Amino acid sequence: MLITLLIAFLSLIILMIIHEFGHFIIAKKFGVRVEEFGIGYPPRIFGKRFGETIYSVNLIPLGAFVKIYGEESDVDDYRSFSGLAIWKRILIVLGGVIAFWVAAIIIFSVLFGIGAKVPVGDNDVPGAGDIQVQVMVVQVGSPAEVAGIQAGDFITSVKSAAAGVAVKKIADFQNFVQENKGSSVNITVDRQGTEFNFNVVPRVLHEQDQGAVGVSLERLATIIKQYPFYEAPVRGTMFTWEVTVKSLEGIFGFFANIFAGKGVPAGAELAGPIGITIFLANAASYGLGFFLYFIGSISVLVAIFNLFPIPALDGGKLVFLIIEKIMKKPVPVRWEQTITAVFFFILIAMSLFVTVRFDIPRLVDFVKASI
User: Fold this and answer.
1) Do 7 and 110 belong together in one domain?
2) For the whole prediction, is pTM greater than 0.70?
3) What range(s) does the PDZ domain occupy (predicted)?
4) Domain span at residue 191?
5) Nearest-angstrom CA–CA distance, 322 and 219
6) What does the alpha-carbon distance between residue 323 and residue 82 come to, in Å, rounded to a whole number?
7) Is residue 8 pLDDT above 70, yes or no?
8) Domains in the chain: how many in total?
């Protein structure tokens, strides 16, 4: 499990490198001088100059950066960012976001080239068959762990002395467990093609985030079948669009609930970089297809997030450029830097809050499960 955590972490770093490469390649295309392209954040471990650009590896492994001449100051030079026409600067800013979507298309194209099971909701009716409910996480000390249920098991049925149900949806299992709290139930699972039966007594009292049995479930279906190599990119592009639309609907619903005073929507989970890494590590544990689906979806979500009109994000930079276009003059450099710094610290504070409140407990559970 710790290996998958490392793989997940490196995958996110690669996404960040791709994002910065999007800015880098368009800046180069427009003849802007790129002073440095760095993997990780300073202090620098080592760097090598090729042409006019330093390519560096830095100590803090939390992403990547590109230093573009004239981006943070008003430089009267045709080879500076500030010396370009606004439409070219907009394309450079959008380059990072576009790179996320290009990465998603490539990832989903590979996914359609190999075929895979992917998560689906209980209300989704996939065109293909082979719908299964898989145990993703078993809580430490829970009835499920005591009984011997393991992450990766597929739950096929659950029964009591009086009745039983075939499990085709997560709700099938959850509802049956709720009706039989405190009583012994028999859970049948498929573990790598072999059937096992476990007697479990669902808890009457339990932590809200653990459930009566202590398992986290995912409904999987083979809705992405394998396609010929020449058709996979078309499918991957179409699927990227579908994921983008669904992500936008989910984000709109999230904020609509918040502004309506309804709180965080049911099923929504807040996660920072550590939490996302853990989710991705869990996905990597259950097959290449699931991993590709998850990281492709993350790439789309991060692309959308970067377009938010918040200073310190690409969307915020676009806002300043639009203001410049409307006002016929750039926003004073000091104003832009001050506003960006304020929002940067706000984002860092929010990230730290989510990390401490949600991600560290997830990390502790992940480590415990790995020991």
Assistant:
1) yes
2) yes
3) 135-191
4) 132-224
5) 44
6) 14
7) yes
8) 2
